[in-house]
Design goal:
This is rRNA-processing protein UTP23 homolog. Pfam families: Fcf1, UTP23_sensor. By secondary structure, the protein is an alpha/beta fold. It has a domain of 155 residues: Rossmann fold. It is 51% helix and 11% strand. It has a 6-stranded mixed sheet, with helices on both faces. It is elongated and about 130 Å long.
């Protein structure tokens, strides 16, 4: 079951990475209900969550969540201690705190620009989060952390983008940054510059060199003197005279 659960989590995280540019370290916003459930089920959030999501995480909350936990008294004292260990992200309710659920919803407005994960046990908050595309949702079931599958809103958004063949602005910026990081932009500029500058074809230069080498005449070889053999002249045959 654990391996299957991690496979599903890896698949869902890959969906958000590819379509909504979610990157490590994953920004996880937790509310008081999630901290209380983790305490009750003896879940070590800081140790277990990175392994489950397959990457580094930053656990964070807001001032409104901490204020809400303080107002609830001793019943959620343990959850407040857990939430106080996390980073506190600035919200727009510094002077007039609101409920934790309302604060977390405000943090994912305008297309969730900071790519937050929302970790909550609040069913009403979970329903509202699912209505916003590109917001991963975490909750606890049977003593385990679960990453919910992409919501219908997220799937519909991706299908609309693919049907219209449109590239969202955040994807254009990320592609540009990736190209600059890998040095692809510089290579493209250099290629364009090389195309503008006219020059001789290197292949034609090689052929010319070969022709020059072929036209070169080899140095004249020294003539070897032929040694004449002296042949012995035949001696005249003497005739014998009879007496």
């Amino acid at each position: 079951m654990k391996i299957t659960r991690q496979k599903h989590a890896k698949k869902h995280v890959g969906f958000y990475k590819y379509n909504f540019q979610v990157r490590e370290p994953f920004q996880v916003l937790l509310d008081g209900t999630f901290c209380q459930a983790a305490l009750r089920n003896k879940i070590q959030i800081r140790e277990q969550l990175p392994g489950y999501l397959g990457g580094a995480t930053q656990l964070c909350t807001t001032r409104c969540v901490l204020k809400e936990l303080e107002s609830l008294g001793k019943e959620l004292y343990g959850a407040k201690l857990i939430a106080q260990r996390f980073q506190v992200r600035h919200c727009s309710h510094f002077k007039d705190p609101v409920s934790g659920s309302a604060c977390l919803l405000s943090m994912i407005q305008d297309g969730n620009p900071h790519h937050y994960f929302i970790a909550t046990q609040d069913q009403d908050l979970a329903k509202k989060v699912k209505k916003k595309p590109g917001v991963p949702l975490l909750f606890i079931i049977q003593n385990t952390i679960v990453l919910d599958k992409p919501s219908p809103k997220s799937l519909a958004f991706v299908q609309a983008v693919q049907a219209n063949q449109l590239v969202p602005e955040h994807q254009k910026q990320s592609l540009k940054q990736l190209k600059e990081k890998e040095g692809l932009g510089k290579e493209e500029k250099e290629k364009r510059k090389r195309k503008r500058v006219g020059g001789p074809n290197p292949l034609s230069c090689l052929k010319k060199k070969k022709k020059v080498q072929e036209t070169k005449q080899p140095p004249a070889a020294k003539k070897k003197r032929k040694r004449k053999r002296s042949r012995a002249k035949p001696q005249p045959v003497q005739q014998c005279t009879e007496a």
